[in-house]
């Protein structure tokens, strides 16, 4: 269980979803991928878990070409699903998004083409949606004006700390489509209450640390299609598989990111909550130093414990 003396209590539970890439009209993404169906499946399966995240953070590339219809369909799918599980929705801009329709159709705002930077307060946890996009380009940057604003926001710590959500993750990359001038952002985040950075853009799940700030960076895979990191040399291959999303559990100053694949897989075993309870009772009664040969993942799955999720079952 999460309970114990080795770590603080679980304070927050967030879903981290990225790169939905909804297309306008009835077209498939790249002529092959049904982006809507993938996200519908995610929410349908997640509803079965009965888990109750406080917020769902979407880290950009929500519409593939910024099409109004794509944003409308996305919102129509996400908001009822979020409401059903009691979660707030946090939208973040990506390089495939366009600010004016993004604002108009997701935020009901006519503020236009200025960067979409928003502060959300989630039961004491601050989540800052930071717009890392450069209109018309695929690389990212946080402008001087944004850095100044961010510094002002972070000058006052939040009760439970801060998560930064942005599309271009500040991790080493190819150089072509990366977040530029990362040191300037590091200068603003260093020695603040920022506990983790959530990113997207890469279409694969990865983790890193942000330079010498020590702040962990977690990148969720895409829900539309993923990049194949085992593709033959010299080939960049997008594939209709291995899509996923992340569970984010916040224990005080410790943040745990767990990747969840989307899709159906055959079961190897299933352990019920009742069986787990019996096991705990037996262990307490016998004081047995060695647990019986139960499968390990169910015993350590964060979702199985803190949020009543049962992954892999
Ligand atoms: Fe993307
Ligand atoms: Fe992107």
In short:
The protein is α/β, with parallel strands linked by helices. The protein has helices spanning 35-49, 68-84, 99-107, 144-154, 182-189, 273-286, 296-300, 302-306; strands at residues 12-17, 55-59, 88-92, 118-122, 125-130, 162-166, 194-199, 206-210, 215-219, 226-227, 238-239, 244-251, 254-261. The chain folds into two domains: 12-261, Purple Acid Phosphatase, chain A, domain 2, CATH 3.60.21; 273-306, no CATH class.
Attribute tags:
5-stranded mixed sheet, globular, 2 domains, alpha/beta, 313 residues, Purple Acid Phosphatase, chain A, domain 2, binds fe (ii) ion, 22% strand, 6-stranded mixed sheet, disordered C terminus, 8 helices
Provide an overview of this structure.
By secondary structure, the protein is an alpha/beta fold. The chain has two domains: 12-261, Metallo-dependent phosphatases (Purple Acid Phosphatase, chain A, domain 2), CATH 3.60.21; 273-306, no CATH class. The chain is 27% helix and 22% strand. It has helices spanning 35-49, 68-84, 99-107, 144-154, 182-189, 273-286, 296-300, 302-306, and strands spanning 12-17, 55-59, 88-92, 118-122, 125-130, 162-166, 194-199, 206-210, 215-219, 226-227, 238-239, 244-251, 254-261. The strands form three sheets. The protein has a six-stranded mixed beta sheet with strand order 4-5-6-7-9-8, covered by helices on one side. The chain has a five-stranded mixed beta sheet with strand order 3-2-1-12-13. It has a two-stranded antiparallel ribbon with strand order 10-11. Strand 8 (206-210) and strand 9 form a beta hairpin. The protein is globular. Mean pLDDT is 91; it is low at 297-313. The protein binds fe (ii) ion (FE2) (2 copies). One fe (ii) ion (FE2) binds next to loops.
